[in-house]
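Board notes (copied after class):
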Amino acid sequence: MGESTHSPRMVRFGVYEVDLRAGELRKSGVKIKLQEQPFQILALLLGRPGEVVTREEIQKKLWPADTFVDFEHSLNAAVKRLREALGDSADNPRFVETLPRRGYRFIYPVEGRPSTALGIKGQAGLDGRRIRRRAWLAALGLLALAVLLGLNVGGLRDKLLGRPAPGAITSIAVLPLANLSGDPEQDYFVDGMTETLITELSKIGALKVISRQSVMQFKGTDKPLPEIARELNVDAVVEGSALHIGERVRITVQLIEAATDRTLWAENYDRELIDVLALHSEVAQAIAGKIKIAVTPEEETRLADARPVNPEAYEAYLKGHYSWKQPSFAAEGFKRAVEYFEQAIEIDPEYALAYAGLADVYWKTDALPPEVAKPKAKAYVMKALELDDTLAQAHDSLGMVRFYLDWDWSGTEEAFKRAIALNPSFAGAHQGYSKYLTSMGRHDESIAETKRARELDPLSINVNVTAGEAFYFARQYDQAIEQFQRTLELDPNSFVVRGLLGFAYERNGMVEEALEEFQKATALAGDHPNFKWWGGVFYASIGRRSEAQKLLDELKQLSNQRYVPPTWIAGIHGALDEKDQAFEWLERAYQERDGWLVMLGVNPYADPLRSDPRFQVLLRRMNFPEN
């Protein structure tokens, strides 16, 4: 006997009912007209509710290779018709959710999945002996296959699966979450969700997590996920979407294996905004469990210790963070960031993250003189740590303060190590630590830290520049040249990178190449004061004194109008072999706590001054350890 004709495959969700056998969609019992392709897409989605059905799967099912159609247009049109039939919205989906570049997911609870309606009624005509025989043969076959796969005999498991076990995933990139609201004014919130998830995952020491700066370069990109994974050198990517409505937040995330472009895990989360940090901790723990990465008890505690936040304070913090993370961050961006962070603190005076944010913007701004901004940064970072000693961001800022402002060398190392312990994938902390190690003459350790920072933030110009500087200050000029050349591939128009490459060429005796790079850098830099300093030192070093003197005069004149670090002027005097003037400006730099002084002990361009007794005296006054 064949399969019974009286067992239709019915699926229900909300007021809708789908008869998969008859190909009918009904709403409250009333049939809704739906064309064949949209219905087939609905059937595919209902067969795997809550899971991603990829665009490739839909294409193979509905538009096979020998079908000559515009797949993208046809698929988009079919999904649009399906949503119209369900009264659904792409921007605020109730039933069918779009996963950008991936596919679609049915997100409403489903009753009676198609897979459970298939049954085994087609076997009703078989006698019991045949059924038992087939069952035994199937069981033996499955047992044999399980043994072969378990032992990976002849590499069978790898050949069949075409991938390593999920436990082999040790590196991840969290791609920018999609803004489901469609409102650009909500970008600050969605970007904040992305960074918070990165931060939570970064607490797991055994997992390499790519930093925000590198992943944000893929915001809105249509690059295939495997290609993105190769550029970032990761085993898997996390992508998804976020939606903020009132005081609720909803995020959808999925974990995708890079080698196979296969979804390993996906989930929806809907929470009150007050519990947003707990939401991200939950996601991080779920991902860690799925890929079977080792999580220490201390890391488990930190992941679980997600404190409630004041929703209004949290939104103000995200707006402040978004303002100063913009590439065009300058005086206006600094002002907006400060206003938002202060607003967050006014709402919640014990909000540690907002104090840490203020510390960052005051430390990095050029909108205020250093003697005004740096003490403020120090005060805010100390307040942040008083409220929450587990903030890696605050310990990193403390390391900067102790390094550049206090010249507290042991305290600097302690702060950076603490930041890295709290967030092992914090590229900025590895970068800051490497600069400290360079200043101490611990070059091998510094180079190792820059390598780690580049692994975590491979597309960051700033991190790659620091890597080149580590080689340069170690006087490994061939390696410095190679690193700066690689950095130029990220941004050929960076006058900073071209200037540094010129310095490395000059120190390596390659004067013609150095001149060529400095000419390119000069054209790109325009009237930038930083380049007056570099140019003055460079031209003095190759014997072109008149050009060096011209830039020195311009820099001194500029110092009457705005702050110019005294080390810049001292550097040109030193390169011109004008030692008295150089030490006069270095003394001024010492009194002003000029941050550039921290590299004085290792900078090759300080070599003309090293034989002078005043040089060693200055290093001792700065508490540098004896060589």
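Comment from the instructor: The first strand starts at residue 10 and ends at 13. The longest helix spans residues 128-151.
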